Amino acid sequence: MTLQESPTDHAIVIIGAGPAGLTAALELQAAGLRNITVLEADTQVGGISRTVAYHGNRIDIGGHRFFSKSDWVMDWWRQLLPVATPANPDVGRELRYQGGRADLPESTASEADDNVLLVRSRLSRIYFNKRFFDYPLKLNPDTLLKLGPWKTFTFGLSYVWARLHPRKPEASLEDFLINRFGRKLYRQFFKEYTEKVWGVPCHEISAAWGAQRIKSLSVTKAIAHALKKLLGLGDKAAQTSLIESFLYPKYGPGQMWETAAARFVAQGGVLRMQSRVDGIDIVDGQVRSVRYRDAQGMTHVLPCTHVLSTMPIKDLVAAAGDAFPQEVREIASRLSYRDFITVGLLYPRQAIPRQLDDNWIYIQEPGVNVGRVQIFNNWSPYMVADPATLWMGLEFFCKETDPLWQMDDAALKALAHREMVQIGLVRADAPLDAVVLRVPKAYPGYFGEAYARFDVLQAALDAIPNLFLIGRNGMHRYNNQDHSMLTAREAVRQIVNGQIDKAAIWAINVDDEYHEEKS
Prior knowledge:
- The protein has 20 helices and 20 strands.
- β16 and β17 form a beta hairpin.
- The protein starts with a strand and ends in a 13-residue tail after the last helix.
- By secondary structure, it is of the alpha/beta class.
- The radius of gyration is 23 Å and the shape is globular.
- α1 (19-30) packs parallel to α10 (254-266).
- It has a 7-stranded mixed β-sheet with strand order 8-7-16-17-18-15-19. It has a 5-stranded parallel β-sheet with strand order 10-3-2-14-20, covered by helices on one side.
- It folds into 3 domains: 2-48 and 256-335 and 447-506, FAD/NAD(P)-binding domain; 137-238, protoporphyrinogen ix oxidase, domain 3; 337-444, Protoporphyrinogen oxidase, mitochondrial, domain 2 (Polyamine Oxidase, Chain A, domain 2), CATH 3.90.660.
């Protein structure tokens, strides 16, 4: 059965209740618009930024530091959740963002309050050859000792050679990384991990991914940062990769988006969960209605004046049927994605032979499938029910067609535990508890024949004046949540002003530096 819903003079449909979708919803309300419906296919809001609760413990899928060089984003977050005063005043002293202001305004909130942002210490490391290396790599005696004098010398020569003889044109991610780090450092610390994440050789991945994610992080800047600290000149690093603190919701990233969703609904917005969009009706070059199926399987038709979409472009174009030319439909259908599995493992602390203060650890050990390990205790102590336990999240990258994805949960839990023991991070016969989470289409792929023709697809979608693509999957771009929020803000500005310039949305996170960099 299909239900036709009543049309109105101004009806805006937002597909997806992740960071981009909910930011757009609240910004539209702030601009005075009220007839707004958000459709979410899942049972939770937040998209990949949701928090999953399991037996009293919480999982942050992918890891989400709340730090942005955008003042607007930082203020937006703090308007929803106040910053709790740190118990230790030294924590957060390095937290800065654009304009040079400290991101620690006076607040009456305390860590004992539930709805707050905590100031957390940042630590990420690379685990290679059963040793930890700072991430980003730092020039200090510890790193040099671990590498050894010969590697340090040859890596240095390789870096100098790459700077003097850069690869041109810089077409692939391999070109990009070698030009910035040298061939030897690239092969030691970048190649294997990157190919594990994406499932294809680095020379097949577009240099655009590196340009977006790590374009100004370099050996030179890491060395400069280390020297400044060594000379006592303070932290003047140009990268927030080198910043030691960040904000984090007390109960995980989903708390931010659950708060945003609650405010949207309280202000009169309509949020429909478990509502999967399977039809986009385009007539005379404009979207006229959106069709979605609810949890009971009933199809609804929702007339609209504007649509903001965060659903994967592949699915969006398929939902539009034959509204787009065959070439466009073919490109969209062949877009690549990287899927993602998190295996949560709970251990008693005595089963962990090393002190692990990391938020996450990049696993460079050969012979294992795991790519990264999160320690949820270190994101927020409130993510873990029992402080005497360590709650780990092992991240595996794959495709839905891979044997890894198709393993049953019991086999995945056994594999994850076995690999933790194999690389020496755990000593235990079995975890106390375990859970498996699968996230399809977590990472849009920057490779393949279809991606090489993405401009054709983008042009066709942008030609629909009342359809706005925002967010990570909505734009098939590896945006972080702050960039996704900024795309939403720009789309809302255009809807409110009636001045459509889709290029301004696509320009976000292109000319700007990646969020791991400071102004």
